[in-house]
């Protein structure tokens, strides 16, 4: 039999639910109001503001609105701001030293925040790469190597040197660091054209594409937040920051591609560490040439002896691990025959997805003896 609930008890429960909802809503509303007041206070800029010593005209309502927008957008991405602060401890000291050595304004370092959030592998849909987001043509114009194997736009030290040269030239061209920053974003020819057509040479008064109209304000927002993070609620302890990378630098000269795992072994470390210390190396090999390589701090002692021994052993193994492609062979078939992953075969031989093999081609295969092999095949030695 269904048990009936007394009407008075039902009314009591309903009253309690209403009181709880009202109380919760009141608490949430108070919290929302508190957050709103904090945000309004945070973006209220009362003191003078400048970029590279050039005043920002905050008395202009349009300028104030554009700055507040970028501050709110940045503060709405708290995870990004926290990573800015953490990464800046790793990268800003070297960037600051380079700017100081070139007698250039310290504020230029915030361009890396607007461009890449200090991510070495940052890549844009326009083909810009690295901390300073150089496109290939500009990067090579300012001395960066950009090839199929090496991309120095991803090396913070070399890219910063190139960026200072480029920004200095832009400043000489436009006579303003603010305009130089805008030109860095949209290109010097594009900015020069807008100045000529609009007959205005002040960034804040120019009508530009939306990205560039916001660009300097994004840099200013990063400067304001990172110069006083506690004002915005970001209180980091010393242990919260990412440490600067510590490394030794060694020179490697080679007439043949060298696998990075050889360099890692000679440095008593791992492949990943070598890649992290040398992000300009795009793939698995160091190409032929002369290179300055970063290795873990302290590992340069005895590195040369270990490297010479390992590389000699590697070339011997390589010479003993040659397979000659025969008629009817395919990469997938060869991989299956030698019981190795297809991808490993392509990595060992630097084979891209579009490359075709033909009879007579030589492949390096570091694997056990294949499942079935002609008597004329050369024995392939096991991989170390």
Folded structure, characterized:
The model is unreliable at 369-384 (pLDDT under 50). With 384 residues, the chain is mostly helical. The chain has 14 helices and 8 strands. The termini are far apart. Helix content is 49%, strand content 8%. The chain has a two-stranded antiparallel ribbon with strand order 1-2. Strands 3-6 form a two-stranded antiparallel ribbon. A hairpin with a 2-residue loop joins strand 1 (50-51) and strand 2 (54-55). The longest helix is centred in the N-terminal third of the chain and has 36 residues, at 7-42. Helix 7 crosses helix 8 and helix 10 (260-266) packs across helix 11 (271-277). It has helices spanning 7-42, 61-75, 78-101, 111-116, 136-141, 156-174, 177-186, 188-198, 210-227, 260-266, 271-277, 303-319, 331-337, 342-348, and strands at residues 50-51, 54-55, 247-254, 258-259, 285-286, 289-296, 322-324, 362-364. Among the domains are: 50-240, Lysozyme; 247-319, no CATH class.
Structure summarized in a few sentences:
With 384 residues, the protein is mainly alpha-helical. 49% of the residues lie in helices and 8% in strands.
């Amino acid at each position: 039999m269904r048990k009936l609930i007394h009407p008075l008890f039902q009314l009591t429960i309903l009253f309690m639910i209403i009181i709880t909802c009202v109380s919760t809503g009141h608490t949430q509303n108070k919290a929302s109001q508190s957050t709103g007041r904090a945000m309004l206070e945070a973006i209220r800029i009362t003191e003078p503001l400048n970029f590279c010593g050039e005043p920002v005209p905050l008395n202009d309502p349009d300028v104030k609105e554009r700055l507040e927008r970028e501050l709110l957008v940045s503060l709405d991405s708290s995870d990004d701001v926290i990573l800015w602060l953490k990464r800046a401890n790793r990268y800003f000291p070297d960037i600051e030293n380079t700017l100081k050595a070139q007698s250039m304004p310290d504020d230029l370092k915030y361009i890396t925040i607007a461009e890449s959030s200090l991510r070495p592998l940052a890549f844009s849909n326009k083909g810009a790469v690295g901390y300073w987001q150089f496109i290939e043509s500009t990067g090579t114009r300012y001395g960066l190597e950009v090839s199929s194997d090496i991309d120095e736009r991803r090396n913070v030290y070399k890219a910063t040197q190139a960026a200072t040269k480029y920004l200095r030239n832009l400043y000489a061209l436009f006579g303003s660091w603010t305009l130089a920053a805008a030109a860095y974003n949209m290109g010097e020819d594009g900015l020069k054209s807008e100045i000529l057509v609009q007959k205005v040479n002040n960034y804040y008064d120019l009508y530009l594409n939306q990205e560039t109209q916001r660009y300097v304000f994004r840099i200013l927002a990063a400067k304001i937040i990172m110069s006083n993070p506690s004002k915005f609620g970001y209180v980091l302890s010393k242990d919260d920051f990412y440490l600067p990378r510590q490394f030794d630098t060694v020179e490697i000269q080679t007439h043949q591609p060298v696998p990075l795992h050889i360099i890692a072994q000679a440095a008593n470390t791992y492949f990943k560490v070598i890649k992290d210390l040398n992000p300009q190396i795009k793939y698995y090999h160091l190409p032929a040439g002369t290179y300055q390589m970063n290795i873990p701090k302290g590992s340069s002692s005895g590195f040369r002896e270990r490297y010479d021994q390992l590389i000699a052993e590697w070339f011997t193994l390589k010479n003993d691990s040659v397979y000659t492609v025969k008629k009817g062979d395919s990469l997938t078939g060869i991989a299956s025959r030698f019981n190795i992953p297809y991808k490993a075969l392509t990595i060992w031989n630097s084979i891209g997805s579009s490359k075709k093999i033909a009879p007579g081609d030589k492949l390096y295969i570091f694997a056990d003896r294949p499942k079935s092999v002609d008597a004329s095949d050369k024995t392939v030695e096991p991989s170390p």
